[in-house]
Amino acid sequence: xxxxxxxxxxxxxxxxxxxxxxxxxxxxxxxxxxxxxxxxxxxxxxxxxxxxxxxxxxxxxxxxxxxxxxxxxxxxxxxxxxxxxxxxxxxxxxxxxxxxxxxxxxxxxxxxxxxxxxxxxxxxxxxxxxxxxxxxxxxxxxxxxxxxxxxxxxxxxxxxxxxxxxxxxxxxxxxxxxxxxxxxxxxxxxxxxxxxxxxxxxxxxxxxxxxxxxxxxxxxxxxxxxxxxxxxxxxxxxxxxxxxxxxxxxxxxxxxxxxxxxxxxxxxxxxxxxxxxxxxxxxxxxxxxxxxxxxxxxxxxxxxxxxxxxxxxxxxxxxxxxxxxxxxxxxxxxxxxxxxxxxxxxxxxxxxxxxxxxxxxxxxxxxxxxxxxxxxxxxxxxxxxxxxxxxxxxxxxxxxxxxxxxxxxxxxxxxxxxxxxxxxxxxxxxxxxxxxxxxxxxxxxxxxxxxxxxxxxxxxxxxxxxxxxxxxxxxxxxxxxxxxxxxxxxxxxxxxxxxxxxxxxxxx
Amino acid sequence: xxxxxxxxxxxxxxxxxxxxxxxxxxxxxxxxxxxxxxxxxxxxxxxxxxxxxxxxxxxxxxxxxxxxxxxxxxxxxxxxxxxxxxxxxxxxxxxxxxxxxxxxxxxxxxxxxxxxxxxxxxxxxxxxxxxxxxxxxxxxxxxxxxxxxxxxxxxxxxxxxxxxxxxxxxxxxxxxxxxxxxxxxxxxxxxxxxxxxxxxxxxxxxxxxxxxxxxxxxxxxxxxxxxxxxxxxxxxxxxxxxxxxxxxxxxxxxxxxxxxxxxxxxxxxxxxxxxxxxxxxxxxxxxxxxxxxxxxxxxxxxxxxxxxxxxxxxxxxxxxxxxxxxxxxxxxxxxxxxxxxxxxxxxxxxxxxxxxxxxxxxx
Lengths: 508, 363
Known about the structure:
Number of helices of chain A: 25
Number of helices of chain B: 14
Largest sheet of chain A: none
Distance between the termini of chain B: 65 Å
Radius of gyration of chain B: 26 Å
Structural class of chain A: mainly alpha
CATH superfamily of chain A: MetI-like
CATH class of chain A: Mainly Alpha
Number of strands of chain B: 11
Order of helices and strands of chain A: HHHHHHHHHHHHHHHHHHHHHHHHH
Number of domains of chain A: 1
Structural class of chain B: alpha/beta
Largest sheet of chain B: 6 strands, mixed
Order of helices and strands of chain B: HHEHEHEHEEHEHHEHEHEEEHHHH
Largest interface: A-B, 83 and 75 residues
Shape of chain B: globular
Oligomer: heterodimer
């Protein structure tokens, strides 16, 4: 009974979040453009500089995505091979911690390690890839842990386990690899923190500048169309390939095999991605006094930032499940695999994922900057809505991945036994795929914590998102404080991650 | 929910033992914890609504300096101060647009605007978005740093300078005038922040006001043709010098002082903009028209324009220069070589300068 109520509450909350984060801002944005009825300040022509920045953003993001997915494969294999993320608690916690530290801090750390004239483009790609690789690790690893192993086990009889993973298992995991690539591309394409830290100007930098410097909606909407088109193109390409892929084979409970060499490889990656650049900064700039001072000064902002990021992660997942379960196909006969993707609300959330952060911020301001909505506009929920609007599509994709398992034998058996769809969801799908929503919440929370563009226009007086403080410290050359704040973020990330891993392990 | 469902379908259930119930408990507890945490957060953060005596500041003065000053005010008066600081991307312009949009929507959220520059404040005053208030604390501020209609006051200034690495660029190789930076050999080694934002925007507008459109446009054209780098902020120009990607950075004094404090090998040079000096950019303080807390905002403005705060700004890491002569004497701070400009004329020239920047430099 409680579970059924919770499932209904999840659906209702998700639907409400969907309306608040996607529907109303879209209506407000369109109405704003129509009401103004003017041309953008810079005209409709796209300048050579804009094309140049778009090209730079595109190729940097694409290369970084490929590098990041490749770097993540050993980690994904290890996490998946463990069958449950809980069997690798330290590695899982370290990955979460790497992700939670704002990436511009790593950029600055690498600046100290690499020679002075090192190419900023390569540094940007390296920082992105080494910061974000836990995302594909979590997504691919979680999928690998829940998928079947028959083909993999058969291949491993004639080849090494690594080779079997790449040649036999990875093709069956293509939807998850594609999902990871999509997440990474969108993140990199919309990020301006890392390029800025590397001395690069990208399209997102200028777009946010335009959004901040104009009170007219059209001045943001028009320049945002080009990057939106690029992202939509990537999105459609990946969805096209995704739909052609076969569904995962169901889990068969293959045994967990330990691999010390692989674990060493992943730990080495972890060392290079997080502790090495951070260590350089800590060794040079951090002091106990600064660390204490950082906590004294920014404890409230740190706590609020972490809290709002976590709330956003949960809300994004709730929205994802709410939207997918709220569509009529959920209640009818089981749809086949990803066939439910074209449903309007889901496509709506996906399109929002393709929008640049600045445009999402603009949409929220247009929607909620009203005298009657001060209760929302003045407080943290609008920041959380900005995060959900920007990263909610991740929650949606995670929900789709989890709910596609409802067509399996176990779900059919449960239906035969009289189970309702919500019962299957709460008793079967979530317990079986717990790692994937957990990874989704973690990813959305981490991205929210590092976000600088979607929330730039919707900042509230009640707290200052810590990403802005870290960025400000970077720009103000306060390296010690920047490192201290990052250490607090990493510390704050490791403890709950370890606790979660411990809890999952106990449950296992 | 029939219990046998759990037994039948749970793949990890070896027998109808307590395991499914344990799993259900874990699921339920986790969801309850999440919902509880969410509610607690909602009550904890959003709960305390605006109370009387609370004041909201939009602040584009550096966060560390601004926080220090606002904390001092809070400690003295007990009035709760909430601040939104500028972001590196939008800088002052971002907060100004926010003020405009909120005023247009009929509900200004901010009480006080404390800006790191003056030109945008003048534009806000012209739009009728600032409240007139003659602070008794500002009586000893020179007249040219106060609005005749008392809509803004401008205590403490920074100067526009070039930053350079003294180990890489000896004194003899430094330009002496701003216009020289557009020459080929200097331009290709220069970095300038996007002139549509921040103090660089005011700097370019000042060129239009002082030099006239033709000369200013020629400067921008030669800068572009010479290959000057356009980066996304003043501090980014200094970092370009620190990293060796540029030899000269168009920036403000505070960026150079803060970089030096961080151990960077950089120094500054005042270049001649006309009349032997450089552009000085004052901070500004103003009350937002129609803001929620009129009394509290006046009290805060009195504090922000007081000699005490100007002293704090001068002694901060940013090393602002007081406009009060007595304070400069007391702190032994020299007034930098200055090009006298009419700040309202600079504000007038901003639109024209923006258009030229879009057509020439950012195209």
